[in-house]
Design goal:
By secondary structure, this protein is of the alpha/beta class. Helices cover 39% and strands 16% of the residues. Strands 2-1-4-5-3-6-7-8-9 form a nine-stranded mixed sheet, sandwiched between helices. Strand 1 and strand 2 form a beta hairpin. Helix 7 runs antiparallel to helix 10. The longest helix has 33 residues. The protein is globular and about 85 Å long. The N terminus is likely disordered.
């Protein structure tokens, strides 16, 4: 079944792309093609199933289409021009569907060729804290493992890619950050986006405080940026577009910082600290006097408040028949091959029956 999804994925490479023109804020639709861009970057969106990844991408490229469910791995690119005479900058955007189901497909966008300009956006559904930690932990581990595998390759070692990425990581965070000993920088820029803030804001204040503190700790110790967003709040979408553009195109970053759990969180790389995050009580008997600086302790706190439930992701019987990805020529060939396969099966069945009949004679 997974193979069928992977085969189906390759159709996306011929799908629609969206060309970003910041001068007139206009989007044109075209077909994937070779470009003579001055600078290419890659961003991979991973995260909660039905957490809003496609919606965020569409809003980033100003696509007015209604988002469709992502089966496995989708691709499109955004192209940005600084002026009429300047070369265009291209951002290759990949979206991993299925939550934590298809992490093995990360090897497609994460390569030694893309790693130097790669960014990761981890989308977490704030309305489902009972699935949040499992999703976050699983995907962070999967992405980091895939990146480390590339960094350990001979091609990466020859050019000193690991050292280059670590140097860039500490420049993002701040080489003299007060929590340097507690931070294990993610090898590439990482943005954690908490989505569906419009639902999250109505949660119990104490629950919001726990979620915000834990997410801030994970983001901070990974040298990541953290931001809450809702596709229903235009101001938050605009701020999300600004930080994504900063990651992939190097545009100026927003100077806005928000750490109040009663407001949408917005913290850039290296903008937080353990002192600002505060103490997390290690137990009901601990009023907050002990710093809990272990990820396992923060995980324990989070999962105690929100016991984790692994989302059951079921695949359609035949993803090749999904109506979202109709292509006349490919579908005609597939139909013909299905008929040939069925005929082959019937022929084998007839031969088996004839052979059994001979054995009884």
């Amino acid at each position: 079944m997974l193979q069928a999804y992977v085969q189906r994925f390759f159709r996306f490479l011929n799908g629609s792309v969206y060309i970003i023109n910041p001068e007139v804020h206009h989007i044109k639709e075209g077909r994937c093609q070779q470009t003579n861009s001055h600078k290419d970057s890659t961003v991979v969106f991973v995260g909660s199933r039905q957490g809003g990844k496609t919606s965020i991408i569409y809003r980033f490229v100003e696509c007015a289409e209604n988002p469709k469910p992502t089966l496995a791995l989708e691709y499109l690119f955004g192209r940005r021009s600084r002026g009429l005479d300047s070369a265009k900058e291209v951002c290759h955007m990949w979206e991993l569907g299925g939550g934590t189901l298809f992490t093995q497909l990360l090897e497609i966008p994460i390569t030694v060729e893309t790693l130097n300009t790669l960014s990761i956006v981890l989308v977490l559904d704030l309305s489902l804290p009972e699935e949040m930690w499992f999703t976050m932990e699983t995907l962070l581990h999967a992405v980091r493992s895939e990146i480390n595998q590339v960094l350990n390759s001979s091609a990466a070692k020859i050019v000193g890619l690991k050292e280059t990425l670590m140097e860039l990581a500490w420049k993002r965070i701040g080489e003299d950050h007060m929590d340097k000993d507690m931070i294990d920088p993610f090898p590439v820029p990482l943005l954690i986006l908490g989505t569906k803030y419009d639902i999250f804001q109505d949660l119990d204040p104490e629950k919001k405080k726990v979620i915000c503190r834990c997410l801030r700790y994970v983001a901070h110790t990974n040298g990541a940026a953290l931001q809450f967003v809702s596709t229903k709040v235009e101001n938050l979408i605009t701020k999300a577009r600004v930080v994504i553009s900063h990651m992939v195109f190097g545009t100026p970053a927003s100077k806005t910082v928000s750490m109040d759990y009663n407001k949408p969180i917005m913290i850039l790389f290296g903008g937080d600290s353990l002192q600002h995050i505060g103490n997390m009580p290690l137990s009901d008997d601990d009023p907050g006097k002990s710093y809990s600086r272990s990820l396992d302790l923060w995980k324990h706190t989070f999962t105690t408040h929100f016991p984790q439930v692994v989302s059951k992701t079921t695949l359609p019987d035949d993803p090749a028949k999904d109506t979202n990805f109709k292509e006349r020529d490919v579908d005609m060939i597939r139909t013909q091959k299905d008929k040939e396969l069925e005929q082959y099966r019937r022929d084998l069945d007839h031969k088996r029956q004839d052979w059994e009949a001979l054995n009884f004679m």
